[in-house]
Design goal:
It comes from Zingiber officinale. By secondary structure, the protein is α/β, with parallel strands linked by helices. The protein contains 7 helices and 18 strands. The strands form 3 sheets. It has a 10-stranded mixed beta sheet, sandwiched between helices. A 5-stranded mixed beta sheet has the order 1-12-17-14-15, with no helix packed on it. The longest helix has 13 residues. The structure holds adenosine-5'-triphosphate and ligand VIB. Adenosine-5'-triphosphate binds next to helix 5 and helix 7.
Amino acid sequence: MEAMRHSSTFLRPPADAAASSFYALVVLNQRLPRFAPVLWSHARLRVFADGGANRVYDGMPELFPEVDPMEIRHSYFRTKFGFGFLSYHGLISVLYVKNKATYYVSGGANLRWYKPDIIRGDMDSIRPEVKEFYINLGVPIDDLSNDQDTTDLHKCVAHICESMDELDKSNLCILVAGALGGRFDHEAGNINVLYKFSNIRIVLLSNDCLIQLLPKTHCHEIHIQSLAEGPHCGLVPIGAPSTSTTTTGLQWDLTDTGMSFGSLISTSNIVLAEKITVKSDTDLLWTISIKKGI
Ligand SMILES: Nc1ncnc2c1ncn2[C@@H]1O[C@H](COP(=O)(O)OP(=O)(O)OP(=O)(O)O)[C@@H](O)[C@H]1O
Ligand SMILES: Cc1ncc(C[n+]2csc(CCO)c2C)c(N)n1
């Protein structure tokens, strides 16, 4: 069985991380994670899900309270906030140090960094002035209000998949900001997207943790970014019970163990090793805490 490798290098500044994946970012309608600028600077495709546009419009300036909000929305390159350098993808970046946390505010050729590639959804949550702001920036707005059977996250993931060819898709990893910690029906819908697109790497993120699917078709090697994540973790058989799961590297490892709701599921586990291995006869959710300091 082929091993699938996982590593949350997107939680580290791009300069620290090897660019092994093609990252796409979906911003949902929840408060932005404090490390949203780091996710943004990794992403090569950015999609706002309906009301997610309000969160960037309102939230990015809140992460940089000293700077004029309109300037952040356009993200003009200003050396007085840090120092400029050419990052690995050839874009101008600014190292910005605020409250001991380090952010990268990067500018593309037109220096309008917080401009998404598209806004997609059923458009019942984006505020009129926010919609107008992005229309004036030339952002395409994809109004799919006729589809009331799939969520805005589903619509955005489908768009990302449609816009990539098969070869690029094997390298694709979709980061979803604001997916957890809010309404439970939305959280369940977001988790369901992991299952609907189980052939695509998707990471659901909140300020506190991340969740991804470990498909049963592979054994899994999870390389822990210990500066940014852990030690608390869990393995949850949400879609179907497991009759056999085996792990290494955890404080409470499983050895050919069954897991199901109503009996055992692995919560409040602890990562002990730099590499965790997981093999199961069912799809599992992997979750790990995100460190407060990042
Ligand atoms: N409280 C939340 N918790 C988790 N995810 C959320 C939450 N609110 C929104 N989302 C995510 O952000 C996406 C866009 O949110 P938005 O509020 O625009 O959706 P919506 O379709 O208007 O939702 P609804 O009509 O059910 O309130 C949703 O599809 C969902 O994936
Ligand atoms: C059985 C069933 N339950 C709920 C909905 C409602 N719904 C699901 S996704 C969505 C779009 C949200 O942007 C809406 C309204 C439905 N269609 N079918």
